[in-house]
Design brief:
about 160 residues, mainly alpha
Length: about 160
């Protein structure tokens, strides 16, 4: 039967076994589990830090990329504006030079025309004076007048043709 001392002895053995197992087996296992939990937690924390850093770097990269695109668009627009201004300036200078050249050419033509007219007047006056001198020197009659008139017209025409060329 069950004896009281056997039951007490069994209970004492169970308590000693429990204390020994707790001290030698459960304690170290819990310690190892706690260390592993700390290690896993620290690795998760590091992974979260790295993920946060990666997200931060990605955001910085996206911002820089966006800024770079905006900057390149601004530079391109500025370059287009500068090129347009330069084009307009060159066109304006070319038009100004062309109008100056045209004005100078017209002025030169007008001066040459006036000079030619003055030369013609001078030659006509000289021919008229020569004709008048010849008329006074020669005997005047109708046939002489007609011959002098024809000679004058021919001389004036020849002189005009030589000046035109």
């Amino acid at each position: 039967m069950l004896r009281l001392d056997g039951i007490i002895f069994t209970i004492i053995n169970l308590v000693i076994l429990y204390v020994a197992m707790r001290h030698f087996l459960i304690g170290p296992i819990q310690s190892v589990l706690a260390k592993r939990k700390e290690l896993i937690d620290s690795q998760f924390a590091k992974a979260e830090e790295k993920e946060a850093e990666a997200l931060e770097l990605k955001d910085k990269y996206d911002d820089m990329l966006s800024h770079t695109k905006e900057e390149s668009a601004r530079i391109l627009e500025t370059s287009r504006e500068n090129a347009k201004k330069e084009y307009d300036n060159r066109i304006q200078k070319a038009e100004s030079q062309a109008s100056q050249i045209l004005a100078k050419a017209q002025k030169d033509i007008e001066l040459e025309r006036e000079k030619t007219i003055e030369d013609l007047h001078s030659q006509i006056a000289q021919v008229a004076m020569e004709a008048a001198g010849k008329i006074l020197m020669e005997k005047v009659d109708a046939s002489t007048d007609q011959a002098l008139y024809n000679q004058y017209i021919t001389g004036a025409g020849d002189s005009h043709e030589s000046n035109s060329n």
